[in-house]
Amino acid sequence: MASLSVPAAATDPRRDAMDLHRAFKGFGDVTDLRAATEVICSRTPSQLRVVREAYLAGYAGGVGVAGGGQLERDVAERTSGDHQRLLLAYLRAARYEGPEMVDPCAAARDARKLYRAGERRLGTDERTFIRIFSERSAAHMVAVAAAYQHMYDRSLEEAVKSETSGNFGYGLLTILRCAENPAKYFAKVLHKAMKGLGTNDTTLIRVVTTRTEIDMQYIKAEYHRSYKRSLADAVHSETSGNYRTFLLSLIGRDR
């Protein structure tokens, strides 16, 4: 599976914290919880550590909650079931981020565990999915996906889609897609935000403002490759006035 190697860059933790706070104010609204899931599951461990501190400082007064734990508390209060377990595990996992030599044997073992977790006679073993997706590095997950494809002649994404659903499945897919190619993932998110009648302005603003200084050039290239038009052209046709000018200034001109 092809992937773009984009160095981890510093996101705006205050913006992420604000987006998470806004999402949780919905108290269970599916759209809001998806936004929170996207923010959490598309960030690296080091980025999340800073987001947790920004969330604590901005929305808990920085008093009485150590180590950014306020974000975990709000996740626990606003979510439930396997979705909750995935987000909490992902926030708490000390996953390795630096350069690494991926062990093909370990990747094959994880691929086998995931296959068995989805083929259980008594139903899907969600805990295995949560453990592997939350504890493994992005590079390792790419190797797992490749091993899964080779061993079972089926993509890991198809296994996830067939065995999980709702926000839990969305979280797993976000982790997997961002591990393989984050630019392609966000290009798809932007396309969906502008597809059909009306524009999802909240999603459009969130993605553009948080990815501008990280991988916007890659996102623009993936958008053009996937949808045969430039991202700037799509945004221009779906927005107007100062709002359009603001977004286009962040996206930049196509090269």
From TrEMBL:
<keyword id="KW-0041">Annexin</keyword>
<keyword id="KW-0677">Repeat</keyword>
<dbReference type="GO" id="GO:0005886">
    <property type="term" value="C:plasma membrane"/>
</dbReference>
<dbReference type="InterPro" id="IPR001464">
    <property type="entry name" value="Annexin"/>
</dbReference>
<dbReference type="GO" id="GO:0009651">
    <property type="term" value="P:response to salt stress"/>
</dbReference>
<dbReference type="GO" id="GO:0005544">
    <property type="term" value="F:calcium-dependent phospholipid binding"/>
</dbReference>
<dbReference type="Pfam" id="PF00191">
    <property type="entry name" value="Annexin"/>
</dbReference>
<dbReference type="InterPro" id="IPR018252">
    <property type="entry name" value="Annexin_repeat_CS"/>
</dbReference>
<dbReference type="GO" id="GO:0005509">
    <property type="term" value="F:calcium ion binding"/>
</dbReference>
<dbReference type="InterPro" id="IPR018502">
    <property type="entry name" value="Annexin_repeat"/>
</dbReference>
<comment type="similarity">
    <text>Belongs to the annexin family.</text>
</comment>
<keyword id="KW-0111">Calcium/phospholipid-binding</keyword>
<dbReference type="InterPro" id="IPR037104">
    <property type="entry name" value="Annexin_sf"/>
</dbReference>
<dbReference type="GO" id="GO:0005737">
    <property type="term" value="C:cytoplasm"/>
</dbReference>
<protein>
    <recommendedName>
        <fullName>Annexin</fullName>
    </recommendedName>
</protein>
<dbReference type="GO" id="GO:0009408">
    <property type="term" value="P:response to heat"/>
</dbReference>
<dbReference type="GO" id="GO:0001786">
    <property type="term" value="F:phosphatidylserine binding"/>
</dbReference>
<dbReference type="GO" id="GO:0009409">
    <property type="term" value="P:response to cold"/>
</dbReference>
<dbReference type="GO" id="GO:0009414">
    <property type="term" value="P:response to water deprivation"/>
</dbReference>
<keyword id="KW-0106">Calcium</keyword>
